[in-house]
């Protein structure tokens, strides 16, 4: 029996190591997906199989929004997760969207509760364009966008505020309705209130 158990454990080790890697490594090491969810390739059904139906707005007044089929919002330990879906009203804008099933995911935006260091995501700088997304500039914000993979990382003072997983460039080709500037995901306008300017 001891021999059989030893052989069983040896056979299970690769599986256990794979599970460990998936659970421990940060999301960026897994490409453009978030928890196995990939824009344009995953659906609302995939999300709700993973997370369940989205909760209603918190009743403490911190979030007020109307319920909509166009998106889901989840409040997880890592932070707030906003997921946008393809809906029938979008079909009026472009014929190329006809081939996309309703409730297909368009993007996933994760706003972190505890801001991780950018270094934790081990990104390859050569694959990202970097820019200052703030107006006014030079106040500590920096964005990293990999349009080929569909990832936008928004940082402030070296810490990650948000990550957006959107439709990768290769999946948008041939559909002008899906072509837009991905830098918008990190765009931020900051107003400085000074005494007497209210």
- Which percent bin holds the helix content? 10-25%
**How many beta-strand elements?**
9
Enumerate the strands of the largest sheet in spatial order, edge to edge or round the barrel. Answer: 1-2-3-8-7-6-4
Counting structural domains, the number is 1
Mean pLDDT: 80
Low-confidence stretches: 1-31
Run of helices and strands: HHEEEEEEEEHE
Shape: globular
Give the strand content.
15-25%
> Helical segment tally?
3
Structural class: alpha+beta
Structure write-up:
The chain is of the alpha+beta class and 198 residues long. The protein has one domain. Helix content is 18%, strand content 24%. It has helices spanning 2-24, 44-51, 169-172; strands at residues 71-76, 79-85, 105-112, 129-131, 134-135, 141-146, 151-156, 159-166, 188-189. The strands form 2 sheets. It has a 7-stranded antiparallel sheet, with no helix packed on it. A two-stranded parallel sheet has the order 5-9. A hairpin with a 2-residue loop joins β1 (71-76) and β2. The longest helix has 23 residues, at 2-24. It is globular, with a radius of gyration of 20 Å. Residues 1-31 have low confidence and may be disordered.
Summarize the structure.
The chain is α+β, with helices and mostly antiparallel strands and 198 residues long. It is built from three helices and nine strands.
Topology of helices and strands:
Layout: H1 2-24, H2 44-51, E1 71-76, E2 79-85, E3 105-112, E4 129-131, E5 134-135, E6 141-146, E7 151-156, E8 159-166, H3 169-172, E9 188-189
Parallel strand pairs: 5-9
Antiparallel strand pairs: 1-2, 2-3, 3-8, 4-6, 6-7, 7-8
């Amino acid at each position: 029996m001891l021999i059989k158990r030893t052989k069983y454990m040896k056979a299970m080790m690769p599986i256990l190591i794979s599970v460990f890697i998936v659970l421990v490594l940060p999301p960026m090491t897994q490409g453009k997906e978030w928890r196995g969810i990939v824009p344009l390739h995953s659906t609302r059904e995939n999300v709700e199989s993973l997370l369940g139906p989205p909760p209603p707005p918190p009743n403490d007044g911190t979030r007020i929004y109307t319920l909509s089929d166009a998106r889901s919002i989840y409040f997880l330990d890592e932070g707030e997760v906003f997921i946008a879906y393809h809906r029938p009203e979008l079909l009026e804008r472009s014929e190329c969207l006809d081939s996309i099933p309703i409730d297909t995911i368009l993007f996933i935006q994760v706003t972190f509760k505890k801001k991780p260091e950018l270094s934790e995501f081990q990104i390859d700088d050569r694959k990202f364009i970097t820019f200052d997304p703030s107006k006014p500039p030079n106040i500590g914000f920096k964005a990293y966008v990999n349009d080929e993979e569909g990832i936008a990382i928004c940082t402030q003072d070296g810490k990650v505020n948000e990550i957006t997983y959107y439709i990768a460039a290769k999946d948008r080709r041939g559909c002008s309705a899906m072509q837009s500037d991905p830098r918008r995901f990190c765009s931020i306008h900051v107003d400085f209130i000074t005494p007497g300017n209210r």
